[in-house]
Amino acid sequence: MIDTATATVIATVPAGANPYGVAITPDGSKAYITNVGSNNVSVIDTATNTALGAIPVGSQPLGVAITPDGSKVYVANDGGASVSVIATVTNTVIATVVLGSPGNPNPVGVAVTPDGTKVYVGTGTPSSANYVYVIATATDTVTATINIGFNAGPYGVVVTPDGSTVYVALPNNDRHIPSVAVIDTASNTVISTISNVAGPGAAITPDGSRLYVGNGNANTVSVIDTATNTVVSTISGITNPDGVAVTPDSAKVYVANPSINTVSVIDTATNTVVGSIPVGVNPVAFGNFIQPTPTFPGTPGDKNCHGTSVSALATKYGGLNISAAAWGFAKVQGLQDAIRVYCKR
Question: H/E/C letters for each residue in 49-104?
């Protein structure tokens, strides 16, 4: 667990064997971690940085994503050709979506659209798959398959904030040219391919203007302008990136470097590496591993918004100090400032 304000590790929490994917609930209260080697998902309380237990899922779970309302967790089971659906209220699997034909899918990356209606799943190695599957969250059934057009091995999946576009990293395809496929969600078709951009990890800025993609063995991160779908910058000083996330204010990008046991910090204003945080062995953070922008209990614009938010948080967590920690703030003042910004907007 890294405090982004100080760029230091503040806690280390036990998980299962070979933890890989990371997803944070919209309220920031819990983290769901896929454990590839133990076929389960760890649940972590972010207020106390303690493990709450593990949920059995399918074989070799990799990617994980949570619906915007926080009600469901979707887990891609790489070894099981399926996606497990977890209800967060009970932390139990309520459905298993079998992907089946076409192809021989090994699901890896997974992302939910901002409106919460669809889940996009990338399906593994190029020898077995060249499709992205679309799951309807209302029924937890496959409603579409998107043919990339060649044996592509779709891996990391990212949806733009407006839900119009999906970016899929194709790091190991049979054309031997790492690339990113651009999918139009209205038609569920590939509308463009960005070459020489590898993945597997990728993240998009909250305004949707920039996509950051880690370039595996190239030891770089590419910056893509989503308006033109072109690479506008290449950031060096990264080592074998496997996990990329952008802060809610778009100021920083964090990149996991498994081969050197660090997390790199990128300043988006200059697109340069400005820091390196030592972490555990072989760090991987595949998914959305930055705490979301806070949405407080009060109503923005209402004159009592700040008081309502403070009162509700203090009641829920048993005091403002605990509330601040639960929402990722080092001090109560930081929480108070964030509430004021929220209430005024």
Answer: CEEEEEEECCCCEEEEEECCCCCEEEEEECCCCEEEEEECCCCEEEEEEECCCCCC
Q: What domain range is 314 assigned to?
A: 305-344
**Total number of domains constituting the chain:** 2
Residues 217 and 309 both lie in one domain: no
Give, in order, the Cα–Cα distances in Å from 252 to each of 114, 244, 266. 22, 11, 5
Q: CA-to-CA distance for 202 and 221, rounded, in angstroms?
A: 9
* Residue 40 domain flag: yes
Q: Distance between CA atoms of 190 and 158, rounded to whole angstroms? A: 14
C-beta neighbour count of 304 within 10 angstroms: 11
Q: What does DSSP say about strands 8-9 and 2-3: parallel, antiparallel, or unpaired? A: antiparallel
338 in the same domain as 246 = no
Q: Structure tokens of 75? A: 């887990």
pTM, 2 dp: 0.84
3-class SS of residue 202: strand
Residues with Cβ within 8 Å of 167's Cβ and at least 6 positions away in sequence, in order, are: 157, 158, 159, 160, 180, 181, 182, 183, 202, 204, 211, 213, 224
φ, ψ of residue 315 to 5 degrees: the values are -70, -45
State pLDDT tens for residues 44-70: 998 889 999 999 999 999 999 999 888
Same domain, 186 and 327: no
The pLDDT assigned to 29 comes to 85
